[in-house]
């Protein structure tokens, strides 16, 4: 099936054309980061307005780049939630309107479901697997038994890992969003320079907590004169090492507890080079298979919706035109019969 996919849950307006839930024909992402950087975070009202401006040209560009016309599209997959309600509504209304006008089915897909299935656009991986969804709003571990079959194993008690990256970047005067900048600076710093806490690591549960590391960085920085470049690089490297260690250890614990040797790491923070390296090292030692989507599929994009979208439409689980946005939507509530 030739699917048009549309995503607008936060600050990226994205559209993609995906064939049979496996082949990406095009993937267009229009980011609003410059708009929100001025405010040091996403401003919901501005996000909605910019989605409105971008949605039609982005969809047209996705069709153009795929070399198809709207008449060729056989179904629409669109992010239904979770996210900013005003932002979600723009993509959802566009998707439903297109489907209605063309007389084709539409399905509302969970944003995190998109993230944790994105790798299937690039590689084969059998179910079940353990998924670490690590992004701006999530640090969640799931057991994934199939498309539409998710069990929450653990999550953060406070900040998401991406949020911690962004807050620490702001604290260091590195701008917003800061994950990628910290990643780059960390590569040139000493990860052992400062012994930041590894929260929750001693507890053998699957919960995370990142607000303590953020506070430790704040305390370390407070009262110091201007930080020189070496000091900033060392803080970035030491902070990143602490976050990475917690993410990796808890995910390995989840895999061990579930008796599963396949792990998927997804979401914007899965771009992090330190995280990728540490997982690769430990996976090698333990004969685990760890899969990361390529970076363009880690951050927000629409192509990632194609995997679940195709499956749901193929199996008769289209949404009605009354399908509404769900700003809060636990992934476990996505359930497919059979
Ligand atoms: P969610 O997916 O939970 O709804 P979101 O869609 O806003 O949240 P994503 O776009 O998936 O989040 O990811 C964005 C986050 O990823 C930001 O917090 C950003 O700082 C972080 N990030 C991006 N690249 C890197 C990197 N190289 N290292 C660490 N963090 C990164
Ligand atoms: Mg974003
Ligand atoms: Fe996301």
From TrEMBL:
Keyword terms: Acyltransferase, Cytoplasm, Iron, Metal-binding, Transferase, tRNA processing
Cofactor annotation comment: Binds 1 Fe(2+) ion per subunit.
Function: Required for the formation of a threonylcarbamoyl group on adenosine at position 37 (t(6)A37) in tRNAs that read codons beginning with adenine. Is involved in the transfer of the threonylcarbamoyl moiety of threonylcarbamoyl-AMP (TC-AMP) to the N6 group of A37, together with TsaE and TsaB. TsaD likely plays a direct catalytic role in this reaction.
E.C. code: 2.3.1.234
Residues given in the record as substrate binding sites: 133-137, 166, 179, 183, 272
Naturally occurring in which organism (per UniProt): Geothermobacter ehrlichii
Protein name, UniProt field: tRNA N6-adenosine threonylcarbamoyltransferase
Cited Gene3D superfamilies: 3.30.420.40
Family: Belongs to the KAE1 / TsaD family.
Major localisation: cytoplasm
InterPro entries associated with the record: ATPase_NBD, Gcp-like_dom, KAE1/TsaD, TsaD
Cofactor requirement: Fe(2+)
Keyword Transferase belongs to the record: yes
Domain Gcp-like: 23-305
Keyword Transferase: yes
A GO term from the CC aspect: cytoplasm
Binding site for Fe cation: 111, 115, 300
Molecular function via GO: iron ion binding; tRNA N(6)-L-threonylcarbamoyladenine synthase activity
Compartments, as annotated in UniProt: Cytoplasm
Reaction it catalyzes: L-threonylcarbamoyladenylate + adenosine(37) in tRNA = N(6)-L-threonylcarbamoyladenosine(37) in tRNA + AMP + H(+)
GO biological-process terms attached to the record: tRNA threonylcarbamoyladenosine modification
EC class: transferase
Pfam families associated with the record: TsaD
Organism taxonomic ancestry: Bacteria, Pseudomonadati, Thermodesulfobacteriota, Desulfuromonadia, Desulfuromonadales
SUPFAM superfamilies for this protein: Actin-like ATPase domain
């Amino acid at each position: 099936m030739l699917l048009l996919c549309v995503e607008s849950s936060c600050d990226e307006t994205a559209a993609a054309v995906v064939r049979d839930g496996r082949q990406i024909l095009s993937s267009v992402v229009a980011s609003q980061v410059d708009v929100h950087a001025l405010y040091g975070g996403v401003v919901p009202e501005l996000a909605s307005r910019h989605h409105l401006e971008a949605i039609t040209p982005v969809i047209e560009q996705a069709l153009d780049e795929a070399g198809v016309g709207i008449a060729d599209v056989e179904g629409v997959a669109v992010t239904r939630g979770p996210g900013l309600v005003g932002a979600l509504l723009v993509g959802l209304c566009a998707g439903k309107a297109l489907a209605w006008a063309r007389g084709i089915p539409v399905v509302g897909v969970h944003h995190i479901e998109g993230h944790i299935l994105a790798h299937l656009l690039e590689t084969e991986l059998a179910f079940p697997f353990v998924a670490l969804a690590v992004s701006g709003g999530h640090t969640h571990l799931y057991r994934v038994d199939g498309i539409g079959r998710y069990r929450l194993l653990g999550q953060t008690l406070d900040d998401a890992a991406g949020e911690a990256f962004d807050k620490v970047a702001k604290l260091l005067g590195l701008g917003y969003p800061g994950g990628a900048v910290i990643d780059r600076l960390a590569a040139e710093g000493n990860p052992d320079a400062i012994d930041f806490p590894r929260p929750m690591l001693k507890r053998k549960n699957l919960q995370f907590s990142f607000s303590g590391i953020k506070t430790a960085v704040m305390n370390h920085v407070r009262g110091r004169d201007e930080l020189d470049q070496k000091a900033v690089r060392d803080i970035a490297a030491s902070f990143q090492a602490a976050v990475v260690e917690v993410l990796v250890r808890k995910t390995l614990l989840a895999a061990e507890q579930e008796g599963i040797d396949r792990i998927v790491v997804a979401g914007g923070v899965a771009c992090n080079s330190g995280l990728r390296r540490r997982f690769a090292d430990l996976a090698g030692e333990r004969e685990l298979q760890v899969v990361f989507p390529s970076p363009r599929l880690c951050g927000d994009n629409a192509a990632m919706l194609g995997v679940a979208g195709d499956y749901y439409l193929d199996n008769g689980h289209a949404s009605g035109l009354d399908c509404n946005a769900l700003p809060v939507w636990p992934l476990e509530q996505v359930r497919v019969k059979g």
